[in-house]
Amino acid sequence: MDPLRSISSVASSGMRAQGERLKVVAENVANASSTGTTPGADPYQRKTLAFEELVDRDSGASMVRITALGRDQAPFGKNFDPAHPAADAEGFVKTPNVNPLLEMSNMREASRSYEANMNMFEAGRRMRGQILDLLR
What we know:
The chain is built from two helices and four strands; from the N terminus they run H-E-E-E-E-H.
């Protein structure tokens, strides 16, 4: 396989994975204050992603893919608000297990990883262009 083509494949797999990661982070942040609507109902449960290394048979290049979309099993928080429609018998409302600080950290990491993969993709494209210029 063409080494420059494998650069594109590796970078593309990384961008796809980090793009999905950004979508999950955005969903988690958007639902960070979502509660249930009925007494004692569970609120939004934080989503997680699992990644796996995938080796391309033709080039031997290591790529990444998402293997599972899961749910964080961390316990829900509780706020005392007896007037809330989702309050249980003791007056507590379950709150999502989303930590906005952690989500922002994940967003920043995913964004930087996406950008690094984009730079790698662009470098491969420039190299391909340089080879074509040399062959002319």
